[in-house]
């Protein structure tokens, strides 16, 4: 088979991953580097080029027709630039033209990581077959992306659906984004851990104070740990309910590391959603775990490449894997 692959890049604050992806969403070849996040712009780009070099130097590269990039945000897809919060050396960095140069002028499509996750879940995961969905990434931060009318809706700059920075607490804590009371300030992994510690939860002998450790304590019934997840779930539910009222989603797909907490997050999330989503057209909104896991960024970048490369979002991103 020829011309059946796309290259995918997933660029985050800790790692830069790449893969060649076939029409069924299978990852054929992977490459990976740590992100030198505190270094200057060219050092970070050199890590991207190292990942790309492994891909372009591989035998199947001749079958690649397009490149998709999912990047930590904010991104500006219309300008082809990225300014990831956790990579200070990259501000309005011209990632798309730089990658295009490294891949011999193949078409390059850029989306934010939340949109990439939505594209992945719509193509291969829990939002498959959904006409309207919000997909959330709850991790170090909180991000998201939208599927509207059967298509991934990236918005003009590739950031649409960024639920982490809508306010659910009018007089709440200032957020690094410049806003106040953002969903992320209550529901991110570090927020869950910080709140548990502030309210008296203490880690075990291993000293692990991550959200995963708080989740383990919550599963054992620790009331402070349970309460911290309860509060995170409340913020997420308010954001999901607002999204449902705005654009009438059928389902909210929740992924990211914090979602691995399972029912200590999902049970209060469903309960609070029933409190906030009360009108007839939002009350049936469901909440389900994401299915694409740690490869969501790569699968989503591949979906974006197919979308951007051919301009037929519905036919490809919304299609069923062959
Ligand atoms: Zn914010």
TrEMBL record:
<dbReference type="Pfam" id="PF00480">
    <property type="entry name" value="ROK"/>
</dbReference>
<dbReference type="InterPro" id="IPR043129">
    <property type="entry name" value="ATPase_NBD"/>
</dbReference>
<comment type="similarity">
    <text>Belongs to the ROK (NagC/XylR) family.</text>
</comment>
<keyword id="KW-0808">Transferase</keyword>
<dbReference type="InterPro" id="IPR049874">
    <property type="entry name" value="ROK_cs"/>
</dbReference>
<dbReference type="GO" id="GO:0004340">
    <property type="term" value="F:glucokinase activity"/>
</dbReference>
<dbReference type="InterPro" id="IPR000600">
    <property type="entry name" value="ROK"/>
</dbReference>
<protein>
    <submittedName>
        <fullName>Putative ROK-family transcriptional regulator</fullName>
        <ecNumber>2.7.1.2</ecNumber>
    </submittedName>
</protein>
């Amino acid at each position: 088979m020829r011309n059946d692959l796309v290259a995918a890049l997933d660029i985050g604050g800790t790692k830069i991953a790449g893969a060649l992806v076939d029409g069924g969403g299978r990852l054929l070849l992977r490459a990976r580097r740590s992100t030198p996040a505190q270094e200057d712009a060219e050092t970070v780009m050199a890590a991207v080029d190292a990942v790309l070099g492994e891909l372009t130097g591989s035998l199947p590269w001749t079958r690649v027709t397009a490149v998709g990039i999912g990047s930590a945000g904010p991104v500006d897809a219309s300008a082809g630039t990225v300014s990831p919060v956790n990579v200070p050396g990259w501000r309005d960095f011209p990632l798309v033209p730089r990658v295009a140069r490294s891949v011999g002028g193949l078409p390059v499509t850029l989306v934010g990581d939340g949109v990439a996750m939505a594209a992945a879940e719509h193509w291969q995961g829990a939002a498959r077959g959904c006409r309207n969905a919000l997909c959330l990434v709850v991790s170090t931060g909180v991000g998201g992306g939208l599927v509207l009318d059967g298509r991934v809706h990236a918005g003009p700059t590739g950031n649409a659906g960024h639920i982490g920075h809508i306010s659910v607490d009018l007089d709440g804590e200032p957020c690094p984004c410049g806003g106040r009371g953002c969903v992320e300030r209550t529901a991110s992994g570090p927020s869950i851990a910080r709140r548990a510690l502030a309210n008296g939860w203490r880690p075990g002998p291993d000293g692990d104070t991550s959200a995963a450790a708080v989740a383990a304590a919550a599963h054992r019934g620790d009331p402070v740990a349970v309460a911290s997840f309860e509060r995170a779930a409340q913020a997420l539910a308010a954001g999901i309910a607002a999204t449902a009222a705005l654009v009438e989603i059928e389902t909210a797909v929740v992924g990211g590391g914090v979602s691995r907490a399972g029912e200590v997050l999902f049970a209060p999330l469903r309960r609070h959603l029933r409190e906030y989503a009360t009108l007839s057209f939002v009350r049936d909104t469901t909440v389900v775990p994401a299915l694409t896991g740690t490869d969501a960024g790569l699968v989503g970048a591949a979906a974006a490449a197919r979308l951007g490369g051919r301009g037929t979002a519905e036919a490809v991103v919304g299609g069923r894997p062959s």
